[in-house]
Input
Amino acid sequence: MKKFGIFSLILVAVMFISAQKIYSSNRFDDDTIRIKTKNNNEIVIIVNSINNIDQLNSDFDDVMNNLEKVFIRLEEELEGLDSVITMSVKNIDKNIVVELEGIKESQPKNINFEVNVDSKKKQKNLHFLGTFDFGANNYMENFAFPSDFNAQYTVKPWGSWYMGFGWGLRYYVAKPISFDVGVDFSWYNFKYQDKATRVGMNDDGVFFTKDVINTKFYKSKTTVPYVNVSFTPMVHFGEKNYGANRTMFRIGVGVCAGYRLGGYVKYEFATDDGPTIKFKNKNHYYLNSYRYGVKVLFGVSDVNIFATYDLNNLYAKDKGPSLNPIVIGLNYTF
Output
């Protein structure tokens, strides 16, 4: 068999890395890439989604970097065949797996072998991350929500949003284990269920009352911003992925702490005949200057479901209700 023909077969086989299924018919259930060769043969690469193209390219590069070893072994195997029916090449970690189906002396013959290679690309252990958090926040008093006892400071379960953005590092200490260290800015937005709720303060502490003067109420909330740091050990598992998320799934449990950057209360209200009044007052309202708590996370691809629970109170000791903020939301890494 001529070397040109062998090389063509190798190139065709390499293009099938990461392909899941090949059909002789024109019907394909997954996304497909079709390549026509100059002799009018068709190469079909099947991927689950367009996001798998990066993985396909990476596997292709690994094989091309080690093509000489595969070429030598293939040449030895193909010399004994009269013709080749199918060929596939799969890159599995440090092994290139070759599967051949051919004809020798009019009889079918299957040849399977592996070539051990060392990839020239070294997987990075340290990754830089950008993060964006969005979720719903609330707080608990003695492990019960204030709505359970109809407290004036009860917040809306839907509409009290938590937001944050920041940066981080992920370091893989072992193949399935990483340490995530992050810095971010975040905001608690506690929107009160009763829009007539008013927050006041005196020497004894913060207190909550109900507005009985005005007649139309549109908004009442307390906003508290923080700068935070976090440390989260992670375990990664599932299908192989690339970049900072080496696998499709991950789970982590860690700690977080923050320093308060300010805080304010905001109301929107009106009388029957008057215009809408917007009131905003920046003050400390005996809010704790710091926060610390625990964090849990479960991730799929680049999106994570996370929850945090503050172990210290939102307000200073004996200056307000004993409220521990809690957040459940989505985290996106990029």
